[in-house]
Hints:
By secondary structure, the protein is mostly helical. The protein is built from 6 helices and no strands. The chain has helices at 3-25, 41-51, 53-71, 74-97, 102-125, 134-168. Helix 1 (3-25) packs antiparallel against helix 2, helix 2 packs across helix 6 and helix 5 (102-125) packs across helix 6 (134-168). The longest helix has 35 residues, at 134-168. The radius of gyration is 16 Å and the shape is globular.
Amino acid sequence: xxxxxxxxxxxxxxxxxxxxxxxxxxxxxxPIPGIKVGLANxxxxxxxxxxxxxxxxxxxxxxxxxxxxxxxxxSTMLFSLAGxxxxxxxxxxxxxxxxxxxxxxxxxxxxGHNLGQILVAMYIINSTTLVYYLPFLIVSGLVAGTAIGIVxxxxxxxxxxxxxxxxxxx
Length: 170
């Protein structure tokens, strides 16, 4: 692996880690537990579009493990990993289908993340009563996915321009 690639991976993991930390400190004043913006998913969607699905998955999982050991617990890592996996699967499929914009892919990722987490929670407590949270989590995933998708599309466009400009003038 080239040193430039290692540096890029390190920077992306650090950015996702910092965004996760910011999100853990800043709480959203809503009465539904578990609703977050998903700031670190910004790094994941950018990686998906610029570096491919494998890199996006690795970055997502590394971030979850690092944040889990630093600020969370084994249970938060389990919920995050489940949400990230469902989110990643939906985003990769949607991107490959070439039907959705980056914002649409991000929305599916946000909703998928919440779906993965609620499914794990229902399994752990062995009850389907948590399904009542699903409409609220779908709406929050839609809103957060939209915001992350719009910002991700803007940043991806700018990063591509910088990289393209760098390649021309190297």
